TrEMBL record:
PANTHER family: CWF19, CELL CYCLE CONTROL PROTEIN, CWF19-LIKE PROTEIN 1. This is YGR093W. It comes from Saccharomyces arboricola (strain H-6 / AS 2.3317 / CBS 10644) (Yeast). Residues 419-502 form the Cwf19-like protein C-terminal domain. Residues 230-260 are annotated as: Disordered.
Amino acid sequence: MTDGKILVTHISESDADEAIRKIKKVNEKSGPFDLIIVYSVSCDEIAKINTDGLPQLLIITSHENDNISESKKISETVTVLYNFGTYRLANGITISYLTYSSEILQEQKDTILDNFDKIDSQVDILVTKEWGIPISDRFGRLSGNDMIDELAKKLQARYHFAFSDEENFFELEPFKLNNDRLSRFLNIPKYGSGKKWAYAFKMSVGDNDDEEEPEPTNLIANPYTNITKRSNKRSLDTETEGLVEQSHNPPSNGKKSETKKIRTILPTNCHFCFSNPNLEDHMIISIGKLVYLTTAKGPLSVPKGDMDMSGHCLIIPIEHIPKLDPIKNAELSQSILAYESSLVKMNYIKFDMCTIVFEIQSERSIHFHKQVVPIPKYLVLKFNAALDRQVHFNNEKFTRNAKLDFQCYDSYSSKEYSDVINNQSNNYLQFTIYETPQSNPKIYLATFNASETIDLQFGRRVLAFLLNLPRRVKWNSPTCLQTKQQESAETEKFQKAYKDYDISLVES
Ligand SMILES: [Zn+2]
């Protein structure tokens, strides 16, 4: 049995040059290492940097294409691992990795679990972007994903590295997994955070693994046992930042009371609430009495024809509500519709475009909003086919998702439609198709049960297919994300175009 010396680092593309230079220094001073693992959200630039003098380098990163588990050898010593999978080094060390954020984990759940189901042995190192839930809780952090728990328990890695906290270093005391295997968990922040962004350790290589490692004195109980049921409740949430609310069940018969945690997003942490100090206010287009309008982060659509901006925007109630009650929130509903039709007018008159609006009405949402996307006239007729295709995928391929069955209505005032939306026990996905500002829109609505998992990207997926923009399904993909300057520029263009239609200017 021999020891392998390994260095795990976290860098971002913008600092890649500098960081690789630092890694070379670390390798000279504390190495030489047998293996260096570089975690980076994207890696086009990193792959071009000269890594001469470094040992075997594994770059673990995301790829903008869907569902690809891929490894690519780009030089004698450098290999890039994309998205998720398991990689075995020549010396026998195995590394499993999963770079998706919670939102995409949920979307791709089947594909990912299928991939890891094929692994029938333990691995040495697990690299994930996200944390598991029990460890996240332990540090009082507010994120975590139950799929990471599943993987951690299944793969039984000796080291688990996570990277979602880019600013802080965390290390959990060692613990023993079910089979008595010693395991450690760490979160490595980014180079430039001022924290420990490179972590060096030795690991025995060979069949005997950790047999000879003495038991650490600071051993803690396996964090993955005794997990509260809470994790099931939140499989729909993708916005995982928020405050933990605790409720205590009354103790019965002197038994210890169980604490059940439910996560709720409070307005100070909500992406869409004005009371959140981190609100992205450079993206606000217009603020009305009850509603405001922003450009979309990582917009789906791209400039087309006369339109020199993406045109994708969000209509958001100022009040923090998960779902719209058309009776209780009648004034708000009217306001939202007024914004909607002002946008439909702008798209049609100014840019010769039709408009599609999509939304999720669910008691388990965080802050209700509608997404508005301009669609070229010649494509709007193909909406039905695009929807059918995605429904087919959703219902046949992603079997863990709620089955969707869309009903079509001829107008917002149709009685059948009102019956569905006025019933507050209904949760639903909805598309509204506006061919012109004058004609009644066509509404496609599918209800689902609040306990079912739905594909939160379904709306975006349908429109990305319709617009033939397959790389733009995910708002947070490198293709879609914009810099703050680009976002501000988009918002300015939007404001300029929307000026003549802006109803906040005429609202009392
Ligand atoms: Zn909110």
